């Protein structure tokens, strides 16, 4: 396999192009269980009929676990937004349409979003009373079984050269409440410093899904706390501020 052409370097992984294949090479210390779980999640999502790169194989290269998938030639929505700033609203609308298509699917063998959130809130660097409050609030939220991408952002969407949109990176996918997934996307815009984009995204999501904005906002402290476990110190501080910033009752 050719590992000469690096596409991206992420935390604990490097992504290469090898002809019409994409190699995601994980660092040697990366958990084998997490790699295999990511490949399994991606394979399960393939069965929903969504446009995603297909897993071709899981292998070991130079002692490092590697997921080999189809390479999709095109531009990400984040690249298109940067190249065509006047069309940003149109791209955010396209992004919301894709997210609603994802959330229209079910995939019963995926992990439950609530279970993952409860686990992460328990690990968060928060006062025990706040953690208890967040667990209680999470338990009171409606239980759904929609496919939730978990990291739905413009850089994880590629518009192929033939115009077909493909969704990448299914390592965080679960089944659960769509508004929790929307809250996560809103916070991702904010983490990038794009508050205006975050507000436009949330307005469009609520309009297209006929969801009360206040309902999505109820999820934000819960989502922020659960997402604060990973990431750098700056992101953790930002997310933990959201635990108390929204009036959700």
| Backbone structural class | alpha+beta
Q: Low-confidence stretches at least 5 residues in length (pLDDT < 50)?
A: none
Beginning-to-end CA distance, first to last residue: 54 Å
What portion of residues is helical? 40-55%
Largest sheet: 5 strands, antiparallel
Please write the string of helix (H) and strand (E) elements. Answer: EEEHEEEHHHHEEEEHHHH
Count of runs of 4 or more consecutive helical residues: 9
Please describe what this structure looks like.
There is one protein chain. This protein is of the alpha+beta class and 249 residues long. The protein is 48% helix and 19% strand. The chain has nine helices and ten strands. The protein has helices at 32-46, 77-83, 88-103, 113-123, 128-140, 178-191, 195-209, 213-227, 233-245; strands at residues 5-10, 13-18, 21-26, 55-61, 64-70, 74-76, 146-148, 157-160, 165-167, 174-176. The strands form three sheets. The chain has a five-stranded antiparallel sheet with strand order 1-2-3-5-4, with helices on one face. The chain has a three-stranded antiparallel sheet with strand order 6-8-9. A hairpin with a 2-residue loop joins β1 and β2. α4 (113-123) packs across α8, α6 runs antiparallel to α7 (195-209) and α6 (178-191) crosses α8 (213-227). The chain is globular. The chain starts with a strand and ends with a helix.
Which properties best describe this structure?
249 residues, alpha+beta, 3-stranded antiparallel beta sheet
